[in-house]
Every structure is written in structure tokens, then in C-alpha cells.
Amino acid sequence: MERKKIVRSLITLGLFVALVAVIIISQNRDPSNPHSTISRETWLSGPQGHGYVVNNNQAPAEQCYPCHEKKGLGGQVYCQSCHDQSGVKVSLPQ
To answer: Residues 57, 64: contact at Cβ < 8 Å?
Structure first.
């Protein structure tokens, strides 16, 4: 009987530790940001980063751009400055 009590206590303690870990880890994430699990450097210049998504997304100007503007991540001038440096010709929504 004592053995069952010890096992139950260990399971309870393990679940409690897991819950605390999930709460702590979730505090560092922005649930509204679909890119929050990817580092900024990887996202901007990684093999499946920004360029990959834009080239494989059917309408990035309609799906990505409005969210970026709403979150204050740079509007047309911000995007266009990078596009100009890269020699990319793109028409962003006004």
C-alpha cells in the first residue's frame, strides 16, 4: 500500500512540474505571432525563411502584409527599403 502512495506522489509531482514548466515557457511566446518559434535571423535569411514563404505563398500581400502592419512590424516603407536593397520589384497594397 505504501508503494502505491509513493508512485501516486511521484506522478502528482511530475505533473505539477510539467504544468509549471509549460506556464513558464508559454510566457515567452506571443500566441498571435505564427513565427515566434523561429529566430529572427533564421526567418529573414534561412533556407525556408521569408523568401521561401513569399515565393511559395499564393498571396503574401493579402495574407501577411495586413498582419505585419497591424502589429507595427513595418509598413510599406519598411518592406520596400529591403526590397529595393535586394533588387526585388513588388507592388505592396496601399
So the answer is: yes
